[in-house]
Amino acid sequence: MVRGSGRSLLVFFLLCNVLWVTGVAAQERRGTVTGHVTDASQGVLQGARIELQPSGLSAQSDANGEFSVKDVDPGRYTVTVSHEGFGLYTADVTVTSNSSATVDAFLQVGTHNEVVTVTGDRQGGEVEALTIERTADNIVQVLPADVITSLPNTNIADAVGRMPVSRWSGTRAKASTFKSAAPNPGSVT
Question: Is 184 within 8 Å of 153 (Cβ atoms)?
């Protein structure tokens, strides 16, 4: 009975040894991608993101702008380097077993162009009122009918008093507001 346990233990150790050697050999076949990230004036860029495609492996540049992506299977990769405020840098690299491929990335200051279109509809007669105001030489402000009827006006003087013109003098308005006179709705000063 002891002999059977000894054999099982021996088989177990042999199996572990084979798996360990296979794992070590597999890691030895892998390579590394290293490099340095700077801007156009040779300034170091810390925190740049480095990504290898199609593997998806990634790293970040350190305080010296250096990076290292380890345990990369041998093959051809596209290295993409990005950093906030800079354009993308891409390069193709071939990784061989037990070696290091080097990528020195020089990032250019990026530009960001974006077009934003805002559209909206004017309510009621506002479009017509604005068109009249812009095209007429002697009209200061036009209020659409729906705006006038929505105000708590008791008479025309109240409505005119809300318009931006300052003094009424004879037949000419001067600068900022109409003011209605006292209780007589027909008189405006």
Answer: no
C-alpha to C-alpha distance for 176 and 162, rounded to whole angstroms: 10
AA identity, residue 21: V
pLDDT by position in tens, the chain (length 189): 445 566 676 666 666 555 554 544 444 689 999 999 999 899 999 999 999 999 889 999 999 999 999 999 999 999 999 998 898 999 999 999 898 999 999 999 877 666 777 777 666 567 777 777 777 777 777 777 777 677 776 777 776 776 665 445 555 544 444 443 444 444 444
Pairing of strands 100-107, 31-39: parallel
Strand pairing partners for 59?
A: 50
Q: Do 150 and 83 belong to one domain? A: no
Q: Write the CA distances from 116 to 113, 119, integer angstroms.
A: 10, 10
Among residues 107, 137, 163, the one where a domain terminates is 107
Closest to 179 measured CA to CA, from 153, 138, 167, 147: 167
Among residues 94, 87, 81, 146, the alpha carbon closest in space to that of 113 is found at 87
Task: List CB contacts of 77: < 8 A, sequence separation 6 or more.
Answer: 33, 52, 53, 54, 55, 92, 93, 94, 95
Residue 137: give the domain boundaries.
126-175
Distance CA 9, CA 23 (A): 21
